[in-house]
DNA sequence: CGATAATTGTTATGGATCATATCAAATATC
DNA sequence: GATATTTGATATGATCCATAACAATTATCG
């Protein structure tokens, strides 16, 4: 059980209700729901972090809808492009994906002709990963979508300097916590 | 498939290997794996955000091991404490948890006598949620653990001012993105 | 060399999380 | 008072994450 997206339905009601709000006359108030107090929750880094992460992924998926790429798939394509000739174990473990779970992910990318497994001549156990031409083309388009629709919105929201500061702090947490 | 924790095994090897590294004499190099280049991945906010979130949750669970509280359970206790007398729908939706999934979570907390469902007299459909005495006591201890073991480490790592700035930016993303 | 150990990709499988449809009881609406 | 809505709950499926085990291949070491 983790944190998912919050509800907005009761918020609508609340906004209706809080207008003509009486000072809680006790009793059963016929009660249109009040907005709940988050209290210390809004100070919990884990809580806010998870919420933000869900929002970012959600937006990422919307931006990538035309290419049908999930964050994980995008990260694989990026990593394979940057490190061609590596095998599944290396790519997967760098991304923190367990090898068994990486198989289906790759099956998907390969079935869409974005990525290819090539038997290594050095070590015939391993599969070298490379992007296909289509894979490179799709990745190029994906990067553009991310830059123009996704990361740009973050720059609007936070400002360039803040966005970089945020990234730095998150990296620090990811690497040194 | 999302981002999980990265691997360190190949990193060990790489550190061994990169010492006496030859300038890639072509061919089959007998190859001890090199550290992979993350490239643009380390600039992707979603990627770094997810990594940081996993680390924070992981640390949270370690800090709470003695109380056996997950982040989600902790958030429920916090919210019920701050908003006593609310029903399941209100608490769940505020946390972004769907009602069906909230049932088992509550069953757990109730079976451990941390939280109680009380039939509302106003609306006999709904269950009012309250913390039990044990629930209050456990929550108090949990808060202390979080403050001393969890959030304090973040202050060490980032500094007080940065930690607050981080929280502010994440809240902004969570609410306005 | 040859026996044993380790690695690679894979399958099977279970757990945890998340989402939808549906239901009975209770309440609201008209 | 008939109909619609809400609440908590169950059932169920999808997705993600983790472990064990296997065949093929390679590495290790006596």
TrEMBL record, chains A, B:
Annotated spans, Disordered: 1-30
Organism: Bradyrhizobium manausense
Record's compositionally biased regions (Basic and acidic residues): 1-25
GO BP field: response to stress
Molecular function as annotated in GO: DNA-binding transcription factor activity
Limits of the HTH marR-type domain: 42-175
Name listed for the protein in its UniProt record: MarR family transcriptional regulator
């Amino acid at each position: 059980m983790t944190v998912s997206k919050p509800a907005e339905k009761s918020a609508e009601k609340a906004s209706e209700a809080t207008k003509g709000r009486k000072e809680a006359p006790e009793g059963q108030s016929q009660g249109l729901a009040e907005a709940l107090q988050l209290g210390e929750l809004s100070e919990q880094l884990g809580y806010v972090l998870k919420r933000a992460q869900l929002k970012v992924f959600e937006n990422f998926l919307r931006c990538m809808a035309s290419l049908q790429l999930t964050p994980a798939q995008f990260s694989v394509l990026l990593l394979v492009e940057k490190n061609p000739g590596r095998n599944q174990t290396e790519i997967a473990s760098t991304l923190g994906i367990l090898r068994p779970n990486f198989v289906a992910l790759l099956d998907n990318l390969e079935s869409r002709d974005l990525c290819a497994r090539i038997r290594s001549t050095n070590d015939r156990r391993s599969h070298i990963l490379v992007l296909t031409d289509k894979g490179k083309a799709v990745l190029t388009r994906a990067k553009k979508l991310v830059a123009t629709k996704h990361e740009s919105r973050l720059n609007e929201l936070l400002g360039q300097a803040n966005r970089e500061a945020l990234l730095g702090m998150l990296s620090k947490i990811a690497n040194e916590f």
